[in-house]
Amino acid sequence: MDSDFIELDGVEKVFDVRRRTGFLRRERREVRAVDGISFRVPRGEMVGYIGPNGAGKSTTIKMLTGILTPSGGRLRVAGIDPSRERTKLAHRIGVVFGQRTTLWWDLPLRDSYRLMHRMYRIPDRRFRENLDRCVELLDLAELLDVPVRQLSLGQRMRGDIAAALLHDPEVLYLDEPTIGLDVISKAKVRGFLRDLNAERSTTVLLTTHDLTDIEQLCDRVMVIDHGRLVYDGALAGLHEVGESERTLVVDLEREMPPIELASDLAVRVVRVEGPRQWLAFPASASAAPLVARLAAEHPLVDLSVREPDIEAVIAKMYAADPSRQAV
Ligand SMILES: Nc1ncnc2c1ncn2[C@@H]1O[C@H](COP(=O)(O)OP(=O)(O)O)[C@@H](O)[C@H]1O
Ligand SMILES: [Mg+2]
Q1: Which keywords does the record carry (predicted)?
Q2: Atom 11 of ligand 1, residue of closest alpha carbon
Q3: Taking the model in full, what pTM does it have?
Q4: Which of 228, 262, 273, 317 is 20 to 30 A from 92 in CA distance terms?
């Protein structure tokens, strides 16, 4: 049971889209948003669910929460069929949609939380403990009395994450929780999720466009494209399949000719702009030896590592194996 906390077997979601094509004329079209997806997530796992825009990620999450009913296949969360027993399931799951808030727009955060306390009938002590913990770890103390509409995107997102956790859900679905966030907010959110998973064994399914989220949080990543699962495994494996590259952005003390490093590091300069240089290296390789060598041989001021973008990884995955079928 615990090894199959989330179960999907051939799950499908077909939308019937009607489009006006002229006066009194309409065209019907089927959109197979999710096209036969099967996977298992054991309790306590933190899984990335990635793919290009329109791949079917949000639709999957909506089915997992019971907001949408699958058109086919079988789906269970904690043994519950989400769309049939949505209310029962609601007490056991938390969900955060990056593009939409579950908070009351005109109310201060504190009042939204009070409403949730009632709605979910959270025992008083539990509520206070959870709220205190979220306020501390998500840095919300100064924000509790501010109406939600006055919060920045990053602040609101932290407020939304707290809201999703006040009732101690066993599983947390996050749909693009870091979209549009600044670097500091992203780091805060990631750190919080890591702790939550480690301390409470909360199962986390994370949809994201940012491979850095996955790298820092998830041991396992599933890639969805056109409604189908095209990869399920470790992030490093995905990089190998896609032969993707990461980029080291290096700031030198001054403008210099393109850096040359020993060929065993499989690195090449792809761009130079004044004192800044971009070095591409295989994403499955560690950046550590490269950074060590750079630091020893060049006057470094700063550096950062950039993950490849998801579209590029998926495109290369197909290029590497054109016969690639859904897993
Ligand atoms: N309510 C809807 N009605 C019709 N089509 C939809 C609806 N929701 C999503 N879709 C379509 O289903 C596909 C998958 O969408 P979505 O799950 O939102 O993708 P993602 O979250 O991966 O960007 C897209 O082609 C989208 O246009
Ligand atoms: Mg989406």
Answers
A1: Antibiotic resistance, ATP-binding, Nucleotide-binding, Transport
A2: 33
A3: 0.83
A4: 228
